[in-house]
Amino acid sequence: MRKNIVAGNWKMNKNFADAEALMIQLLEYKKNNTTNCEVYIAPPALYLTMAKDIFKNAEVEVFAQDVSEYQSGAYTGEISVEMINSIGIDGSLVSHSERRQYHGETDSHANRKVKALLDVGLTPIYCNGETLEQRKAGQHFEVVKNQTEVALFTLSADEIKKVVIAYEPVWAIGTGETATPEQAQEIHAHIRSLIAAKYGQEVADEISILYGGSVKPDNAKEIFSQPDIDGGLIGGAALKIEDFSKIIEGF
Ligand code: PEP
Predict the structure, then answer these.
(1) Distance of CA 203 to the CA centre of its chain
(2) Ligand 1 centre and the CA of 74: distance in Å?
(3) Does 245 carry a binding-site annotation?
(4) N or C, where is the chain less crowded by C-beta within 10 Å?
């Protein structure tokens, strides 16, 4: 059975004190509630050590928002898989659309980052999705196919099983515009069928595919009820415990 996951991407938000306060609220929430999904957070890199400390006895996995494709060396500003591994971080987002948009990341970068994470036993949450222009041109199935193939299809079956995929249509991220549950479901099913064609249905059925793009407390349940949607990658609504906890309760 694949995992249901709600993951919060904090992006570049919150100072130290506010980040600590939100982590403590989430810790309290997790102590007092049984959840039907795994809960992950991806705070800014500066707060990863604090997150690991706060959640040391709680079932909240801590992810980086990005990681270098390189092992070590003269890469100013970068953080390596070895660094995050050495402080007990569980994995990293890979090629979020904002990394693609503002930092020129491509699926070739994603491929190397995914591999670097898997090589040290960490979980990649690989993000893909089409732009508004691509959707309007009816290219969304093809775009997501190309992205998935370039980023993931050099992996072995054992490797790809450890990847979490987040389908995030760019036009729905931070815009208040959400894909309908049916629109999301058809792309999720498409991604799963691509994986099944390459690696077999058993492998495809093990991979959690999350939806991201303006998931809110009032639409989470319906989105998560789709057969190929195994949870959400949540941006804005992960920044308030009231919203994030209601989304978790969508399962
Ligand atoms: C995201 O950052 O991955 C995201 C989906 O953001 P939002 O929920 O704010 O659209």
Answers:
(1) 19
(2) 31
(3) no
(4) N
CA 197–ligand 1 middle distance (angstroms): 29
**171 appears as a binding residue in the annotation:** no
Q: Strand, coil or helix: what is 11?
A: coil
The predicted-structure confidence for 93-118, as pLDDT tens digits, reads as follows: 999 999 999 999 999 999 999 999 99
Which atom of ligand 1 lies nearest, measured to the CA of 214? Answer: 10
177, 220 in Cβ contact below 8 A? no
State the Cα–Cα distance between residues 102 and 109, nearest whole angstrom: 14
Structure tokens of 74? Answer: 């003269």
Tell me if 165 sits within 8 A of 206, measured CB to CB. Answer: no
Contact 78, 70 (CB under 8 A): yes
Give the domain extent around 142: 5-248
List the residue whose alpha carbon is closest to atom 3 of ligand 1.
235
Per-residue pLDDT, 1: 83
Residue that is written with structure tokens 């994986």 in the block: 195
- 130 closest CA partner among 119, 138, 122, 121: 138
The CATH number covering residue 226 comes to 3.20.20.70
ipTM of the complex: 0.97
Count helices and strands in the chain by DSSP H and E runs: 12, 8
Å from CA of 56 to ligand 1 middle = 26
Number of structural domains found in the chain:
1
Tens of pLDDT, residue by residue over 118-163, are 999 999 999 999 999 999 999 999 999 999 999 999 999 999 999 9
Place of tokens 């729905």: 172
